[in-house]
Amino acid sequence: LKTVQFREAICEAMSEEMRRDQSIYLMGEEVAEYNGAYKASKGMLDEFGSERVIDTPISEAGFAGVGVGSTMVGSRPIIEFMTFNFALVGMDQIINNAAKIRHMSGGQFPCPIVFRGPTASGGQLGATHSQAFDNWFANCPGLKVIVPSNPYDAKGLLKSAIRDDDPVIFMESEQMYGDKGEIPESEYTLPIGIADIKRKGKDVTIVSFGKIIKEAYIAADKLENEGIESEIIDLRTIRPLDYNTIFDSVKKTNRLVILEESWPFGNVSTDISHTVQSKLFDYLDAPIEKVNNADTPTPYSPVLLKEWLPEST
User: Domain named Transketolase-like pyrimidine-binding: which ranges (predicted)?
Assistant: First the structure.
């Protein structure tokens, strides 16, 4: 094993796949000369050249569209958004083209493209740079949505995303790029759509994904001091969503809390709550709880931001 930062795990995944397959290229704002806005593509321009690591103008609709179109002639692009807040400008290309090409062409055109970049709050970045659209993308048939929480999962899942023949939304965080974790020295991949039980317990199931899962670990430590054992499930992928792992855990613990960094109306937590309630009603000893952001635009003030985000207490 070796210890790497989250950004290094991302870079390794992209570089290994680009060495393996000449049809893969990386395109986005500042990915080449600047080594990526968060240094997740450091050294890739030097290794692969400007035809495969491509800086773009500030036009998300433009380069997202170029990426989608290039899949139809045999390429496998990785499109980096500086933040998924900016992906809103390219939503037509993602939702109306990437997610639907296979369906509307009767299977003639797969769309092997990865859209990646940070999501949700990155600190004091203001209301328009701090939004979580994970559930927006997960709502759309035709897209797969991955939200890893650590370097090991990030590398293994990104490699699988790049190899997938359907469009994948791969969501990271500005606040995780410096996080460190152990990964194997040798090549590995992780299957899309399989959750991971990060901590075993018998009293309550806590389901989460992405960087906010750190709050679940803090909460579990506090509960342990009170003699309560928490089982923590990291979804890793929210479309497709691994309900079987959740079901098996809830049948054991009889309680469910869902921790998600998003607005509370119509999110992933809502769907999980409905599904578990309808299928496992007789197993539940208490109402399902979901812990989300406050239902307002993201505040800039650090005092308000702390209150706005879901946290362990």
Answer: 4-179
